[in-house]
Amino acid sequence: MANYKRTEYRQVITGMMMLGYSIRETAYLLKIARQTVKRYRDMERPATDKCRCGKPAQHNGWCAWRYQRSKPRQEFMRKWHDAD
Ligand SMILES: [Zn+2]
Asked: What is the 3 state secondary structure string of 57-83?
């Protein structure tokens, strides 16, 4: 029997990837394996291949989008500016 969740997953996972959620976050929020998220992401390329900042989805380093969503990065910058 086919996996009845397949269509649902595909839509939800694609949506989340396009909204800029990471593989790890998506897997955690949907309570599924990261490998599953990767599989569906790969099916929907190139729609899921961009970070919200416009760079490729797996780009290295910081960007406005990642910074905005990351408490640790914001904390780091706050401390950095407080140092002197
Ligand atoms: Zn980015």
From this structure: CCCCCCCHHHHHHCHHHHHHHHHHHHC
The total of other beta-carbon atoms located within 10 Å of residue 41's CB is 21
- Distance from residue 1's CA to the centre of ligand 1 (Å): 39
As given in the structure block, the two tokens for residue 37 are: 């998220």
Specify the pTM: 0.72
4, 27, 41, 55 from 16: Cα distances, Å: 20, 10, 10, 17
**What is the distance in A from the centroid of ligand 1 to the CA of 58?**
8
| 3-class secondary structure, 28 | helix
Q: How far is the CA of 46 from the centre of ligand 1 (A)?
A: 16
pLDDT tops 60 at residue 2? no
With tokens 């729609």, the residue in question is 47
